[in-house]
Amino acid sequence: MTQADKEKQKLIARIRRIRGQVDAIERSLSSGDDCADVLMLLANIRGGINSLMAEVLEDHIRHHMKAPDKEGTLPVDLAEDLIDLVRAYLK
């Protein structure tokens, strides 16, 4: 299995966890659980989605947005700064 396949499997596993959390909210609402419990479940999903989004954006920046500078080297500092900014925004 290639590194790309392993990364794809990790992302799919995250989606499955998020799906499980959404199912838990449905069960919680159906059973009439306390609003605070439902809100906590929603916050967990939001965190999972934000984390997934950050991961996909980071991958996109690293693999599709880097362009060589005049010397033919990649502007790693700029890409890393952008990744840090995205991660901070999505927290």
UniProtKB/TrEMBL annotation:
Signal peptide from the UniProt entry: none
Coiled-coil ranges from the UniProt annotation: 1-28
GO biological process: negative regulation of DNA-templated transcription
Record's keyword annotation contains Zinc: no
Similarity remark: Belongs to the FrmR/RcnR family.
GO MF entries: DNA binding; metal ion binding
Keywords carried by this UniProt record: Coiled coil
Protein name as catalogued: Metal/formaldehyde-sensitive transcriptional repressor
Pfam short name (any one): Trns_repr_metal
Record organism: Silvibacterium dinghuense
Record-linked InterPro entries: Metal_Tscrpt_repr, Metal_Tscrpt_repr_sf
PANTHER family tied to this protein: TRANSCRIPTIONAL REPRESSOR FRMR, TRANSCRIPTIONAL REPRESSOR FRMR-RELATED
